[in-house]
């Protein structure tokens, strides 16, 4: 039980208002059940208990509402930051390739920045945690995520290296696609990874079947076909669309395999994992950009001509995007974070409309719309249909209790008939 509690520790901050409210309600029920020795004392005790109970409930409601409003405001800020970081990295990468056409070198450079995850997490640990640990102690504790023996060479090559390759493939294929198609199409098509995650989870992880998500997956596939048709099946556009779809597939495979092999991770464990991926990329993949340079595949005359400002800008924006995506759930709702990704599509469209020649024909607009619609449908919770039924039931019954309370003010017999009518109408519905 102790180990399970540690596993869900990151969500304790979100659940703390609910726990506090439950505790106060329990105390109120205990206080309401107090019985005094005389009727007068009992009346006084009951009145005092009801007064303190109402005050506590009001205080807790205000507290919960304040926390929810705070999370919603943080969510709005998070949506803007996710949208700007993802759209900004896409646009800046497109601009970088006009000066230095090196998608793999840019992928390697940006992935190496992941090594900063754990140091930044440790700084936050020193600022927030009451029990401060040394970097080695924190590293050993987070390494238990990989098993009782921690991070061993066997664990690295079996549980870390494959995810590092999937990470590099996801980013490399996406950057390669930006050389072929515009940023609007690329960002819209990448939203299909949500549908691929659902399909893989349904097949591999045996997740719950949901009809609305099947419809969303069909919309995503239809959007891909329509996007291909929008440019008349030209070779460049077909290759670019294929690369983005492959990138979205690698991203979905990464997420599903991570869930299947490693399960869920706490913030420190996720930061350590991403830092290991970035460090391993810097150490073991550095020879690939060198080979591409000497074979003139990704060649530039001198290192001084490399647009370092653009390189650092793309890497910094991608790093910020991954930080927000992985750790933003600590301060807001995950659904709001996902909205930032789909909102990057109209942002990229506005930029493309003013910076490049893009033909927003009817087919392209419909394709972008149905892909985004499918993405939003996949954000619906599993019990969305029950929530709608309960909400509609409450709306239908809103006027009935008011009529019953008005009749209850007359006599006891009228009150009984009002209740009977209410129960009969509820049964009829």
From TrEMBL:
Protein name per UniProt: Thiamine transporter SLC35F3
Record flagged with keyword S-adenosyl-L-methionine: no
Biological source species: Notothenia coriiceps
Spans through the membrane: 72-93, 105-123, 156-174, 186-205, 212-230, 236-258, 270-294, 331-351, 363-380
Keyword Membrane: yes
Gene it is expressed from: slc35f3b
Lineage: Eukaryota, Metazoa, Chordata, Craniata, Vertebrata
Protein origin, superkingdom: Eukaryota
PANTHER family according to UniProt: SOLUTE CARRIER FAMILY 35 MEMBER F3, SUGAR PHOSPHATE TRANSPORTER DOMAIN-CONTAINING PROTEIN
Domain (EamA): residue spans on this chain: 73-228
InterPro entries: EamA_dom, EmrE-like, Solute_c_fam_35_mem_F3/F4
């Amino acid at each position: 039980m102790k180990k399970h509690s540690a596993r869900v520790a990151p969500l304790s901050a979100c659940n703390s208002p609910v726990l506090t409210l439950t505790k106060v309600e329990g105390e109120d029920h205990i206080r309401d059940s107090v019985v005094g020795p005389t009727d007068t004392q009992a009346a006084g005790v009951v009145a005092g208990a009801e007064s303190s109970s109402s005050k506590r409930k009001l205080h807790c409601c205000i507290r919960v509402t304040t926390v929810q409003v705070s999370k919603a405001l943080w969510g709005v800020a998070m949506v803007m930051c996710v949208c700007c970081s993802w759209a900004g990295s896409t646009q800046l990468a497109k601009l970088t390739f006009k000066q230095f056409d090196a998608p793999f070198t840019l992928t390697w450079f940006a992935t190496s920045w992941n090594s900063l995850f754990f140091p930044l997490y440790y700084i936050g640990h020193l600022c927030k945690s009451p029990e401060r640990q040394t970097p080695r102690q924190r590293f050993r504790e987070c390494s238990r995520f990989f098993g009782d023996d921690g991070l061993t060479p066997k664990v690295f090559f079996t549980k870390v290296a494959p995810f590092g390759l999937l990470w590099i493939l996801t980013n490399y294929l996406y950057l390669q696609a930006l050389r072929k198609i515009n940023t609007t199409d690329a960002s819209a098509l990448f939203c299909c990874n949500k549908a691929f995650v659902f399909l893989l989870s349904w097949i591999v992880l045996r997740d719950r079947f949901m009809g609305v998500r099947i419809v969303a997956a069909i919309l995503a596939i239809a959007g891909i076909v329509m996007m291909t048709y929008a440019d008349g099946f030209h070779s460049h556009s077909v290759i670019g669309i294929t690369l983005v779809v492959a990138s979205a597939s690698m991203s979905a495979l990464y997420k599903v395999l991570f869930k299947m092999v490693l399960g869920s991770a706490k913030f420190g464990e996720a930061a350590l994992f991403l830092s290991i991926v970035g460090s391993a990329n810097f150490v073991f993949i550095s020879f690939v950009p060198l080979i591409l340079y000497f074979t003139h595949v990704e060649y530039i005359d001198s290192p001084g001509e490399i647009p370092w400002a653009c390189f650092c800008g793309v890497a910094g924006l991608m790093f910020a995007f991954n930080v927000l995506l992985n750790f933003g759930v600590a301060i807001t709702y995950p659904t709001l974070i996902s909205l930032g990704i789909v909102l990057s599509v109209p942002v990229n469209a506005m930029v493309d409309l003013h910076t490049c020649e893009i033909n927003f024909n009817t087919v392209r607009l419909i394709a972008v719309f149905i892909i985004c619609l499918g993405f939003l449908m996949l954000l619906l919770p599993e019990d969305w249909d029950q929530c709608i039924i309960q909400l509609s039931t409450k709306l239908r019954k809103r006027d009935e209790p008011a009529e019953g309370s008005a009749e209850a003010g007359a006599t006891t017999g009228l009150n009984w008939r009002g209740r009977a009518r209410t129960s009969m109408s509820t049964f009829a519905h």
